[in-house]
C-alpha cells in the first residue's frame, strides 16, 4: 500500500507529533507540514495552532480553491473513518510521548518530508448539556446582557474589618480564598457560563454544527458572496480621494487643524480596504492583494500590513484566547478576563511574559475611564509594533514571501519622509502647530480602534477544550454591531465581525447579505448570535471592563488584608 494511502490511527499521529512533526488533519487526509512551516507566508504560528487537530474548516475558509489543491502534496496518509478527536497542539500545552512503533500505523520517522515548491500559489496556507430547553431567541440583546451580568460571581469582598470567613447565602458554602484561588474561581465560573449559554460539547452535537456550517459555507459560495463587487471599491476610491483632497486643500490654505482632521478620516477609511486586502478578499490573489495592502497600510498610513497579518492570522484561529491571541494581550493597560490576573506567557510573542504588577494594580481598576483616551492615541502603538515586526526575525522568516519585508521597509520609510519631513517639518510653521497636527490627526482615527475592540472585548475568553467546533468558537467570542445600511461606510465592515470570522475572505460589501444566512444558521444550531447597536455595544464593553475592575479591586483589598491579618477577607 502506498504511504499516502495508509491509514494512520490517532496513536500514530501522536507519535509523529512527539517526534517533532507538524501533523494536521484536512478532510480525510493526514498532512505533514514540516517542509512548509518555514515557507508559510502567513507565519509558522498559524500552522502550529492546528497541529493534531482537524483543521478542515479553518483551512477552507482561509484559502482559495487553487491553494486547497496543493494540500495533497503534503499528504502522508488517511485518518481513520469518522470524526477526528482533536488533540491539544504543543504550542497550547499539549504533551505528546512517542508510543511503541507499529508499522501498520504510521510511516517510519525517517521518511522524507514532502518538499513541494509552492511559490507560485496565489495564496498562502494561512491558518488562525442538552439544548432542547433553549428558547428560539438566540440574539444577545441589552436585556440578556443584564441577565448574564446578574449571574456572575456571587462572591463578594467584605471590608477588612469583617471576619475572614463567611457564608454565601445563595449556596450555603463557606469561602476563604487566596488571590490565586479567587482568580481560578472566576475563570472556572466563566467557563461554566459559556457551557450553559452555548450548545453542548458532546461530539454528536458539535459534529451536527460542523455539518450545518459546511452546508452554509457551500451556500455562501454558490450565491457568489466571495465574488468581489469591484463597483463598490470604485465608490470607496471616490470617498478616499475626496478626503485626501480636503486634507491637501485645507493644508494649502493654512487651516491646519481642519486639515489634520481630514487626514485622520482618510487614514481611518482607507484602512478598511487594507483589511480586505490582508484577507485576500479583493482579487483573491496573494501577491496582488498583498501589494494593495502594502500600498495602503505601509505607504499611505505608515503601518505594517505584514505585522497586521502575522497577528491577525493567529487572532482568527484562537480568538480571545488569553495566552495566544495578541489582540487581547494588553496588560497592564487593560484586562478583559480574570485569566490576566496571573502572569500571561504569550505564545505569539515567543514566551514573553505579561506580568501583573503594581502598575496593573493601578491601571486596571480605572480601565473603563482610560478606555477612550487610550484608544484615541492607540495609533502610536501601532507604529512601534509595525517597526518591531519588520525588523524582527518573524518578518524575515516568511519563506516564499521574503520580498514583503524589504518592500514594507521601503514604503514605511517613504511614508515618514512625506509625513514627518515634507508635511510636519516643511509645511507647518512652528512646533506648536506640528504637535497639535500630529495629535489631532491621530485622535481622529480613534473610532477605528474602538470598532476593532468592540466585537471581542466583551465576549467570552473561556477555553472550552478542543472538542468545540470552529463555528461555535467564532460565534462565542465575537459580536456583531447593528447599524443601518447607510452607515456601513463608517464601520467599514467591522460591524459584521461575527460573520467575518466565519468567512474571513468575504469582501466586506457582501457581509450584510451573509448576515441573513448566519442568523438562520444560529437559529438552526441554537448558537446565540450576539449583536448590539453601536451605543449599546460601547456600554456593554465598558460594563465588562468595569466588572473586571471590580474583581481586581477585590484582589487588591484581599492582598492588603492578608498582609495585615494573614487571612484573605474573601467570602
TrEMBL record:
InterPro entries per UniProt: Cyt_B5-like_heme/steroid-bd, Cyt_B5-like_heme/steroid_sf, FA_desaturase_dom, Fatty_acid_desaturase
Coiled-coil boundaries: none
Low complexity composition bias: residue spans: 123-145
Any one of the GO CC terms: membrane
CDD domains the UniProt entry points to: Delta6-FADS-like
Organism, scientific name: Anthostomella pinea
SUPFAM superfamilies membership: Cytochrome b5-like heme/steroid binding domain
Record-level GO BP terms: sphingolipid metabolic process
Membrane topology: Multi-pass membrane protein
Transmembrane segments: 242-266, 286-308, 340-359, 371-389, 409-428, 435-459
Protein name: Delta 8-(E)-sphingolipid desaturase
Enzyme type, top EC level: oxidoreductase
Domain spans labelled Cytochrome b5 heme-binding: 5-80
PROSITE patterns xref list: CYTOCHROME_B5_2 (PS50255)
Pathway(s) this gene product operates in, as recorded in its UniProt entry: Sphingolipid metabolism; Lipid metabolism; sphingolipid metabolism
Keywords: Heme, Iron, Lipid metabolism, Membrane, Metal-binding, Oxidoreductase, Sphingolipid metabolism, Transmembrane, Transmembrane helix
Amino acid at each position: 500500500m502506498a504511504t499516502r494511502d495508509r491509514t494512520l490511527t490517532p496513536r500514530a499521529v501522536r507519535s509523529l507529533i512527539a517526534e517533532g512533526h507538524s501533523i494536521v488533519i484536512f478532510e480525510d487526509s493526514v498532512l505533514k507540514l514540516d517542509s512548509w512551516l518555514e515557507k508559510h507566508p502567513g507565519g509558522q504560528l498559524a500552522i502550529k495552532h492546528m497541529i493534531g487537530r482537524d483543521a478542515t474548516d479553518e483551512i477552507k475558509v482561509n484559502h482559495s480553491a487553487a491553494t486547497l489543491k496543493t494540500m495533497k502534496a503534503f499528504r502522508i496518509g488517511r485518518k481513520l473513518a469518522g470524526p477526528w478527536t482533536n488533540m491539544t497542539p504543543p504550542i497550547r500545552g499539549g504533551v505528546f510521548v512517542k508510543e511503541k512503533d507499529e508499522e501498520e500505523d504510521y510511516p517510519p520517522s525517517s521518511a522524507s518530508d514532502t518538499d513541494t515548491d509552492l511559490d507560485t500559489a496565489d495564496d498562502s496556507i494561512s491558518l488562525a448539556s442538552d439544548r432542547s430547553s433553549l428558547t428560539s431567541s438566540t440574539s444577545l440583546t441589552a436585556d440578556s446582557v443584564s441577565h448574564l451580568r446578574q449571574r456572575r460571581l456571587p462572591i463578594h469582598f467584605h471590608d477588612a474589618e469583617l471576619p475572614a470567613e463567611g457564608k454565601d447565602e445563595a449556596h450555603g458554602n463557606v469561602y476563604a480564598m487566596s488571590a490565586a484561588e479567587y482568580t481560578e474561581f472566576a475563570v472556572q465560573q466563566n467557563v461554566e457560563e459559556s457551557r450553559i449559554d452555548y450548545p453542548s460539547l458532546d461530539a454528536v452535537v458539535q459534529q451536527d454544527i460542523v455539518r450545518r456550517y459546511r452546508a452554509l459555507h457551500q451556500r455562501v459560495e454558490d450565491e457568489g458572496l466571495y465574488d468581489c463587487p469591484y463597483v463598490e471599491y470604485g465608490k470607496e476610491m471616490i470617498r478616499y480621494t475626496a478626503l485626501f483632497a480636503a486634507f491637501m486643500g485645507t493644508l494649502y490654505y493654512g487651516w491646519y487643524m481642519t486639515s489634520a482632521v481630514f487626514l485622520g478620516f482618510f487614514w481611518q477609511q482607507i484602512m478598511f480596504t487594507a483589511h480586505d486586502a490582508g484577507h485576500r478578499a479583493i482579487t483573491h490573489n496573494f501577491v496582488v492583494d498583498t501589494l494593495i495592502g502594502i500600498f495602503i497600510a505601509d505607504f499611505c498610513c505608515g503601518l505594517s500590513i505584514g505585522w497586521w497579518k502575522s497577528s491577525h492570522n493567529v487572532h482568527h484561529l484562537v480568538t480571545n484566547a488569553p495566552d495566544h491571541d495578541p489582540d487581547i494581550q494588553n496588560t497592564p493597560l487593560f484586562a478583559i478576563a480574570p485569566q490576566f490576573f496571573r502572569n500571561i506567557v504569550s505564545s505569539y510573542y515567543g514566551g514573553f511574559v505579561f506580568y501583573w504588577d503594581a502598575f496593573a494594580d493601578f491601571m486596571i481598576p480605572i480601565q473603563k475611564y482610560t478606555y477612550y483616551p487610550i484608544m484615541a492615541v492607540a495609533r502610536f502603538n501601532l507604529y512601534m509594533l509595525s517597526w518591531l515586526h519588520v525588523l524582527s526575525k518573524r518578518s524575515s522568516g516568511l519563506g516564499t514571501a521574503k520580498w514583503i519585508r524589504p518592500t514594507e521597509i521601503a514604503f514605511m520609510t517613504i511614508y515618514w519622509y512625506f509625513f514627518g519631513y515634507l508635511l510636519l517639518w516643511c509645511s507647518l510653521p512652528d512646533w506648536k502647530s506640528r504637535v497639535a497636527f500630529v495629535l489631532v490627526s491621530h485622535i481622529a482615527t480613534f473610532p477605528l480602534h474602538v470598532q476593532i475592540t468592540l466585537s471581542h472585548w466583551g465576549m467570552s475568553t473561556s477555553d472550552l477544550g478542543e472538542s468545540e467546533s470552529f463555528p461555535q468558537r467564532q460565534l462565542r467570542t465575537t459580536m456583531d454591531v447593528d447599524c443601518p445600511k447607510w452607515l456601513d461606510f463608517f464601520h467599514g465592515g467591522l460591524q459584521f465581525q461575527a460573520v467575518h470570522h466565519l468567512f474571513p475572505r468575504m469582501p466586506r460589501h457582501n457581509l450584510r447579505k451573509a448576515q441573513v444566512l448566519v442568523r438562520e444558521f444560529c437559529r438552526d444550531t441554537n448558537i446565540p448570535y450576539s449583536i448590539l447597536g453601536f451605543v449599546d455595544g460601547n456600554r456593554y464593553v465598558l460594563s465588562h471592563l468595569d466588572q473586571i475592575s471590580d474583581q481586581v479591586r477585590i484582589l487588591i483589598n484581599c492582598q492588603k488584608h492578608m498582609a495585615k491579618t494573614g487571612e484573605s477577607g474573601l467570602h
